[in-house]
Amino acid sequence: MNAEPGFDPFFAPDAKHVQREKEKAKKLRDSGWWNRKRSDGICYYCRRKFKPNELTMDHLIPLSRGGSSTKENIVPCCKECNNRKKYLMPAEFADLIAKERAEREKAQSVNATDDGEDPSAPSDGEQK
Which domain holds residue 41? Predict the structure, then answer.
């Protein structure tokens, strides 16, 4: 997926661009294309299944970062993923998910091995 010509991730688009693209998104939301796109009920990011009407419209390249409301830039997304992704690009969101997953796995690993004893203390079978 290519960004629009002249896309600069460090320059916020003007309010007119964002408003114009939101209007285009509203038209797409009412189209048969969008109904077909979300009909399988799968979130683009987490791949979980939802009722089609529970999926929201997400811009892969966010409007706030110069994205547009085109069929190539819009995907069905659950509300949780859409709220978490916010203004992130897909690769940035994937990095965030990977980081959160690693933190959860680390916490689970620590909890699984934590039996409340000092690991440096000798066990009952060891000599003191």
Answer: 15-99
Query: Which two three-digit tokens encode residue 1?
Result: 């997926």
The residue among 101, 23, 5 whose CA lies nearest residue 61 is 5
| CA angle (59 as vertex; 56, 64 as ends), nearest 5 | 120
- C-beta of residue 77 within 8 angstroms of C-beta of residue 44: yes
User: Is 4 domain-assigned?
Assistant: no
Q: What is the CATH number of the domain that holds 43?
A: 1.10.30.50
Q: Does residue 21 fall inside a structural domain?
A: yes
Does 121 reside within a domain?
no
Percent of the chain with pLDDT over 70: 79
Token digits of residue 36? 């077909």
Q: Which residues does residue 56 pair with via DSSP β-bridges, in sequence order? A: 77
When pLDDT is averaged across residues 20-27 and rounded to a whole number, the result is 96
Q: What are phi and psi of 97, to 5 degrees?
A: -60, -45
